Amino acid sequence: MNTTILLLLFAPLAGFLITLFFGKKLGKTVSGAIGTAAVAISFLCTLSLFSQINAGETIATFKLADWFSIGNIKINFSFLFDQLSVLWLLFVTGIGSLIHLYSISYMHEDENMHKFFSYLNLFVFFMIALVAGSNLLIMFIGWEGVGLCSYLLIGFWYKNQDYNDAAKKAFIMNRIGDLGFLIGIFILGFHFQTLEFLEIKALLGKDLITPSLLSIAALCLFIGACGKSAQLPLATWLPDAMAGPTPVSALIHAATMVTAGIFMITRMNFLFDLTPEIQNVIAIVGAITAIVAASIGLVQNDIKKVLAYSTVSQLGLMFLALGLGAYEVAVFHVITHAFFKACLFLGSGSVIHALHGEQDMRNMGGLRKVMPITFWTMMISTLAISGIFPFSGFWSKDEILMTAFHANIPLWVIGSIASIMTAFYMFRLMYLTFFNDFRGTEEQKHHLHESPALITIPLVILAALAAIGGAISLPGNSWLNHYLAPLFKKHEAHHLDGQAYMLMAIATVGALVGIGIAYAKYLKKKEIPVADSEVQGLHKVLSDKYYLDEIYMATIVKPIYMISNFAKKYVEKFISKAVIGLGGATYALSIKGKKIQNGNIGVYLFAFIFGMVGFLVYVFVIRVK
Amino acid sequence: MDISIVLIVLLVGALVTYLSGNKFASKTALISSIAAFGATIISLNAFQNGEDLDVNLPWISQLNINFALHVDGLSLVMLVLTTGLLPLIILSGFITKFENSKSIYALMLFMGFAMAGTFLASDGFLYYIFWEIALIPIYFIALNWGNGDVEERKKAILKFFIYTFAGSLFMLLAFIYLYTKGGSFDITKLYALQLTTTEKTYLFIAFFLAYAIKIPLIPFHTWQANTYSKAPAVGTMLLSGIMLKMGLYSVLRWQLPLTDEVAKAHVPYIVGISIAGVIYGAIVTLKQKNLKKFLAYSSLSHVGLIAAGLYSLTFEGFQGAVLQMLSHGIVIVGLFYVVELIYSRYNTYEIKEMGGIRIQDTYFASLFMIIMLASVALPTTFNFIGEFNLLYSLFKVNIWYAVLAGTTIILGAFYMLRMFQKVMLGGETKSFKKISKQESIVLIIVVGLTIFFGLFPQPIIDLITPSLQSILTQIK
What we know:
The structure holds two protein chains of two kinds.
Chain A: H1 2-26, H2 28-54, E1 60-70, E2 73-81, H3 83-106, H4 113-132, H5 136-154, H6 161-192, H7 197-203, H8 211-228, H9 237-240, H10 246-255, H11 260-267, H12 269-272, H13 276-297, H14 303-323, H15 327-354, H16 367-370, H17 372-386, H18 392-407, H19 409-434, H20 442-447, H21 453-468, H22 479-484, H23 498-524, H24 537-543, H25 548-582, H26 584-595, H27 601-624
Antiparallel strand pairs in A: 1-2
Helix pairs in contact in A: 1-2, 1-4, 2-3, 2-4, 3-4, 3-10, 3-15, 3-21, 4-5, 5-6, 6-8, 8-11, 10-15, 13-14, 13-19, 14-15, 14-18, 14-19, 15-17, 15-18, 15-21, 17-18, 17-19, 17-21, 18-19, 18-23, 19-23
Chain B: H1 4-19, H2 21-48, E1 55-60, E2 65-69, H3 73-92, H4 101-120, H5 124-133, H6 135-145, H7 150-182, H8 187-192, H9 197-214, H10 222-230, H11 233-258, H12 260-265, H13 267-286, H14 291-311, H15 315-346, H16 362-375, H17 382-397, H18 399-424, H19 437-455, H20 458-475
Antiparallel strand pairs in B: 1-2
């Protein structure tokens, strides 16, 4: 088992180093193959661990080495392979492998393709550390590490300063969350004298910490989760992150990294169970994020931006579930979302590829016939995300809404409205992209083509998973809930009664309404969204994203710049003068100094020291005698 | 053998370098500094085998002043920092053609000698002499080999000199006072003195002025940016990499143990000033246009955090401070070297005249980026270990200290990434000659050390723990 774990951990790191140092010599295809193989090896190792754990084998903790000690707290490079981490790794490395494969074709035109694979491998390595770490600090290594890779990959085309801005914004906003995370770590470390998850869990019942401090710790961790998983108010970096190449959007900014916040809270579920008021905060933040992001998604015209807002919104739903204590439901939606959102992003990449970089849906249309595989795989995923029976999203979203219904009706209403909006904007995306006539240039039309096999194979696999993925947790007979049961506090499952069927029916009708409106507008009436300059009213508020960026700019960034300029121009001079003015002796010295600024001040210093020595000798020798 | 061997190697090295003439000076200096580092490592090894390396020779016996050097884990790591960085700094000088190079390289070694002595001295008088002597070489290095307008340079260097010199005078007064009380400068005797709270308060303030200027803490920092920007790169590295650690080290070695309960009573104020420096430094850094001044202010911010950890009077704070002194020393040398590499091509320190370098030299960009990320304390870099310890120690005192000082991880990322973007990214604007293998050696060593000690910091922690424990007991 230890060999498997070592291989699982270090195959992507080896891939990173090989492609980094030898990538240029090895060439694009070989680099791509090595990068893909590295992640595939991790996937196979995870499968092996999964089968062992599924067969009831004991959970493995694996200590690699000591790291450092701080006071009495010992921190090790150690890893925990239990149901949760292995399940998470399964889809991280599984989807990771597919996206690596896809990238071999997608990135082939790029001269820095080996670098791309190198960063992608590094990302997978850090993601594994994040998920498999057995203490908060190893998780934090992974946490900041994936943030770094995200920064590198958003800014992959670094000639464009707008992309660099987006990369920088992502890193800094994440760091705001990271400060919260760190403070949370400090609180827990100080009171429990350990950062190991299992030890903290065991010590929680022992009254080592006051309930209010525990709540603050939970809140701090949640702030960290908000940064990484793009929840309000730290959400605005994720849509900008679409500046990165599309496979990055699929892997990092949809399927894996952005779910790290959900993973962290699920990992620390025993803590959050004890802080119901923070759980309420999580549920409310999640619900608000879900509906705000969905409403912005209604009017976006950039195909990747639609998907980005959709991701933020779906993450919000997952946080809603977490806040209601339904961890297994959140995990379920993370998994199905990973399938269909990865597929949607890769599909959009396929479209962008065919149109030579065009991302505006107003210039698309009619692609259904030329790109049938892309179309059908995206259609399946769209049905899944819209919550249409029997696709995977139907089951997972239904469980979230059902949980919300039983906990708090307003939350259920908000979640349901967000879901209706989702169905609308996703079908709007599909109709604008694939139906009616092509609206691009003749030149583009001439070159339209279905993407090659390396692109379509991952699409087909992901679409299949998006279709049937719901099977892992069917109501009443959930493999997933059973598998994860040892991790969570026991709570009663909702019965599959009349009410449950009614809720499913309501959700389905809602989705159909959303789809129907999209159908009427964009397929029947063939509406094309107006040019940005003609947008007005509420529509404008939405397409300007509630002016969140502008508000942050005006209230935070600009003031900091102003203070910085002010301090640089005035405060520094003031302090300089004040300090000098304070000491008359200093002033006198400076007069003397000016006289001898020919470079002889060293002599002066020597004279001073030896004079002082002489003085001391004189005084004390006489005194001694 | 004893520890004076390291001092002797440095002093003899300085002499030999001067005598070797301008042609061979740089190489002789490099070899001498490596020899000193070797002697340090041998001493370290001997120390860990339980050998006694202390020196105690009568010097001015009528006055009971001794040439006394004491070796413990703390002084050893500071010595390793000094003799370890010295070869790197000397090597950094290789990209610049110095006039009269035998003098500058000899001065660098001589400064290494004085700084090493400061870290080792256990006699207050000897310590003071070393402390002051270290000023002489840096004064001449900055004055004679610095850049920019000569008159402006003179003004800046003089300001620096007067500042630090004035601060030191207060320390001298403190030592003289202590001597009159106990009749000795020996550190253990000074530790054992029974002083009243009033006496301790005055001592605390006197030491504080000396160290606050050297470190520097706000509002005593205004000499720093100008001096850094006027001094040649090697001088800036000596200042920021090693010399400012003299102040931090002295807080730990002299100020806190001698003024225990007064220090304790002042925790909120001094930690407050330090944290204010962390934030103020970061904010002022943001809008700097000159790359050297940019690094000076970022250093002000980082060093403020180290001081805050020291004045938190917790074990974790001490540990974090020592670790961060080392990691900051390594990284700041790397950063100033990067600046000098760019300067050697563009002949400017102005950020707005840079850009589009990464596209021309990705190798250089990668190394720079790793050092930049270390400076923002990314986990698995050495700086993360230090920063984590420091913030944790502040948390132990008061959660708000940790939150306020913790903004450094946000602001630090803000100004560093912003600078990196302006300096390195974007399309090609000016042509940049790729750095050679020889030029990259310093960067590779810096990157290697940063990552290595980020992964394996424990041996250093084990080495310093006993000394820090005993200092802590002395305070309590």
